[in-house]
Amino acid sequence: MRYSEHICARYQQALNLLSRRWVGLIVRVLLDGPLRFNELASKLQVVADRVLAERLRDLEAEGVVTRAVHVGSPVRVEYALTEKGLALAPVLDAIEAWSHQWIPLERVTADGMAPASADDSADDSEQPAEHASAMVHRL
């Protein structure tokens, strides 16, 4: 991966990890405690099993998640956040707080962000002028 020499390489690497699709949601769900794969998939609802398994492997390789195999009948595999993963809690809390201030709830659907339309312009009235103009340019 290429990094800008003008921005901290650690910061860029952290954003690369956290910006991978579904990583934020996976970490958010695991903040409540260890979960088995099917429990995690059930809570996430929107992540395909193959992608979830891939992201869990990525997070384990990065030291954010641990995978514990409990021998028994049946064998249980649980995923939990490491100290490094738990340290992301304030980061995700800050993103959630930001979203409550800047992401209009009316534009969020079960499938993700609804497409912007001319009817959405009234929702932008509480946003700063720079944000409102950016919304207009996306229309």
Can you describe this structure in just a few lines?
The protein is of the alpha+beta class and 139 residues long. The protein has seven helices and five strands.
Written account of the structure:
Strand 2 (65-70) and strand 3 form a beta hairpin. The chain is α+β, with helices and mostly antiparallel strands and 139 residues long. The chain has a domain at 1-86: Winged helix-like DNA-binding domain superfamily/Winged helix DNA-binding domain (Arc Repressor Mutant, subunit A, Orthogonal Bundle). It has helices at 9-18, 23-30, 37-44, 49-61, 83-86, 89-102, 129-138; strands at residues 35-36, 65-70, 76-81, 108-109, 112-113. It is built from seven helices and five strands; from the N terminus they run H-H-E-H-H-E-E-H-H-E-E-H.
The CATH class of the domain at 1-86: Mainly Alpha
The helix/strand order is HHEHHEEHHEEH
Q: CATH superfamily membership of the domain at 1-86, which one?
A: Winged helix-like DNA-binding domain superfamily/Winged helix DNA-binding domain
The low-confidence parts are 116-139
Name the descriptors.
139 residues; alpha+beta; Arc Repressor Mutant, subunit A; 7 helices; 13% strand; disordered C terminus
Furnish the topology, listing elements before pairings.
Layout: H1 9-18, H2 23-30, E1 35-36, H3 37-44, H4 49-61, E2 65-70, E3 76-81, H5 83-86, H6 89-102, E4 108-109, E5 112-113, H7 129-138
Antiparallel strand pairs: 1-3, 2-3, 4-5
